[in-house]
Amino acid sequence: MTAVWHAIVVALALFGAAFFLAGTLGLLRLPDFYTRAHAVSKCDTVGAGSILLALALYVAPQPEALKILLLLLLVLLSSPTSCHALAHAAHHTGLEPREPRAGEPS
Amino acid sequence: MRRLLTALALAIVGAVMLAGLAGLPRPGDPAAPVHTHVAAHIVAHGVEDTGSRNLVTAVLLAYRAYDTFGEVVVIFAALAAVMVVLAPAAAPPPGKTAPPPSPAPAVAPSPVVGFVIRLLAPFIAAFAALVLWHGEALPGGGFQAGVILGALLVLLSVVMGRGLEQPLVPAAAARWLQAAGPLAFAAAMLIGLAGAGAVLGLPAEPAWGRHAVLLLLELGIGLGGAAIILGLYLQMRGH
Fold first, then answer.
1. Does the beta-carbon distance from B107 to A89 stay under 8 Å?
2. Rounded distance, CA B79 to CA B13, Å?
3. From the DSSP assignment, how many helices (H) and strands (E) are in chain A?
């Protein structure tokens, strides 16, 4: 039973790590502000979310799990909000999304 | 020639510094002088001397209270300097007509951000209070709590669009709160003189007196820090 439990924990943590990798790649490689913000917000929500969930499951019967779940709730609330605030401010101050160049798939 | 001299000077200075480094005790060596005199005394007598179970607080607010007093005054002076530099531009001299009010910011406040910040605000405030209260007995303290509370006040000011004309903390109260750190230290100095015969000394009697003085200092540092952060934001935001 413990083995299955730990397998779930490891799978969740790896899933989160993969999202962090993709988000970091996106931050470095994507062409403009909006696409980069989009990539990074995936790190904070799905990436950090599933890693925190894995940690909560790992310590599950103990009350620390509840604390980690609260932390998860805070991250899920605050991180998309800050990303939204950035994108909102950029859009309302006239930052245009990058147009695809000629011959580029849109 | 000059390059040679520079290289020689660097080599000599470097050799002296390396020799000095070689003479230092190993990091973490329990027999190092730094661990055998002052630190050992504080670890052995800190709780009994100050009544605080948090040795960091004991050092910060009792053994080295003068140092902390200096830090608090530095933060207060920073706000005063910002106010002096930015205030003349904000208030037109008498006789001249006020410049037309600048157009409202182009960015309309986002309802999403406003909602989430209003939702989280009570929790952030409770966290600041917890950190402040913990500082007297456990890790935490006035400086950290002040930053959390100050950030909350700035966030709320942004979301509610409160500038200098309509600050969240009324101007009359803000003036006193911004000086709360130095004022708390002044009060603690008087209490120390009266109760322990030394400036910033902790009175031995009554037993709760020492806790009260430490808590007063933490409160002054925390509330003062928060008010100063809000003041800095408001000054830089302008009218």
1. yes
2. 41
3. 4, 0
Contact (CB<8Å) A84/B120: no
Contacting residues of A for B151, CB less than 8 Å apart: none
Query: What pTM, to 2 d.p., does this model score?
Result: 0.75
The count of structural domains within chain B is 1
Chain B environment of A85 (Cβ under 8 Å): 110, 113
Give the residue numbers spanning the domain of B180: 30-90+110-237
In sign, the C-alpha dihedral spanning B120, B126, B128, B131 is negative
Here the ipTM equals 0.73
Closest residue on chain A to B115 (Cα) = A81
**pLDDT by residue (tens digit) across B102-132?**
555 556 678 888 888 889 999 999 999 988 8
Q: Is B170 contained in some domain?
A: yes
Taking an 8 Å cut-off on Cβ atoms, the answer to whether A77 and B107 are in contact is no
Dist CA A54 CA A46 (whole Å)? 12
